[in-house]
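Reviewers asked in the last cycle whether our approach scales beyond single polypeptides. To address this, we selected a multi-component target totalling 593 residues and predicted its structure end to end. The input consisted of the following lines:
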Amino acid sequence: MLMCLPAIVFFLVMSYLPMPGLYLAFVNFNYSDGMFRSPFVGMDNFEFLIHSGTLWRLTFNTIAYNLAFIVFGNGLQILIAILLNELRTRWFKKFTQSLMFLPYFISFVLVGLIAYNILSYEYGLLNSVLKSLGADPIQTYSNPKIWPFIILVTFLWQSTGYGSVVYFAAIMGLDSEILEAAEIDGANALQRIRYIVLPWLKPTFIILLLFSLGGILRGNFGLFYNLVGANNSALFNSTDIIETFVFRSLMNNFNFPLGSAVSLYQSVFGFFIVVTANWLVKKMSPENTLF
Amino acid sequence: MASTTARRRGNDFTSAAVRGFGYALIGLFALFCVLPFFLVLGTSFTAEKTITLHGYNLWPRDFSTFAYKIVFENPDLIVGSYAVTVCITIVGTAIGLFIVAMTGYALQRPDFRSRNAISFFIYFTTLFQGGVVPFYIIMTQWFQLKDNYLSVLLPGLMTPFLIIMMKSFVKSIPHAITESAKMDGAGDFRIFMSLILPMTTPALATIGLFIAIGYWNEWYNAMLFLSPNMSYRPLQLFLYNVVTSADFVRNSSVASNIQPRDMPLESMKMATAVVATGPVILFYPLVQRFFIQGITVGAVKG
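The resulting structure, written as structure tokens, was:
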């Protein structure tokens, strides 16, 4: 049907056309020869990345951050959704839900600015509080150790409202008669949550888990880039993820082959992870698979 | 009577405790979510010397609108950025929404043979990607879109997620309705325009909002493709430049005849942020209901 044509053209141009470009990973790119006529160098780019330790550092950071996001993110979202369901004051539920959803709605540039507002050495709120308590101010932007914590908290701040709506909607689909029956049988809130609500949320959780596992090598570029800043190399050991590296190799160093090599590694490895995750789920509970 | 009231939802001690914990945790977390916004707002109204003395504060110690005066002293840049962002958002949302709705409808038609193949064609792009480097080269070298607003407009038109969302909305329309229209001799496009579109208004509102917010907050493609020699850049990129570079502040100080050392550097960043974000936040209470609706349908039924 003709009606799909615009969308097909769109994805063809925006998504499929760049794919052969991954060939860049195997060449020594120069502008005059272009993408497909630059000299072929085989695996040299990958060898360089492995020997310099870059690939290992990027992989470790990207996966570690994503695992933390998945565990703490889903945990907090489920907790908040379940508690929301227990509350009885309607206006309170609606009001707090709106407030929690708000951070999802703003741009990463503003998120970065807010973080700066709190963390800046001279004027930041954090150091104002520390000083008023008589403690020494912290040099946040040159201390790599605290960044995993800052990034995780910002992530939770931004995504919990959105995610808990998803889980809350799933709970709404639960037949309320089941809950009432459980109460008549004398189950208290904890027991109802443990034996009815949590098992009910399992399929939603698995689908979302599959999605996030599929993207485990994809970072949250906007978050990292705006929080850390483009060139704060003092923090790279603990904050550099695949996408920030690729972006730098494109915009600052013009090292197209290295960026492409990392992208190719990310796409192939990531694809492998989704397929494996989907296969595992198919084995365990066939009704919950993505495809 | 007594026994029925005792059976009302969760009147035992544990349930009351869970509820109490719920009120406390959710209340605190909600507060934690909005306080940063007040920090930005408060700082934007604080005099610069108070900031240098006491740092940022939630509540302005001495109210001052000086930063806003400077921001609007030279309104050309910010008005230009607003115009660019508003245009891109309106045009992009209209085109994107139309294509997403059409595709979602077509992919939902049971008599459309290749719908599964096309669905996979679209879904596959979330699994495997060429990456930003080839994308950049194609946009700049092949299509020559460097410093062209199209490079910001085009990539934001749609995502596979929105098409899937539209599909599950259309699914809820009884198939008999389109069948009978077909019997009456209406063509596919006619059915889409005069039947499907009016019947999926809530869906269109939700998807349109997702696209529109995407455009309003867009800074990534703008940063990739629009160079500093463009006079008007989208709002978020404008904000990014105010926040990260001193150039803007220096230019404003020349324009408004103020010594650079007297410029309210810190409060100006916050004031620009308020101006760039404010309208969306004011708009938010009206539209968030659609968002919640959309996530509910799109995410759960997938």
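Chain B has two domains: 17-64, 74-296. We regard this as preliminary and will revisit it once experimental data from Aim 1 are available.
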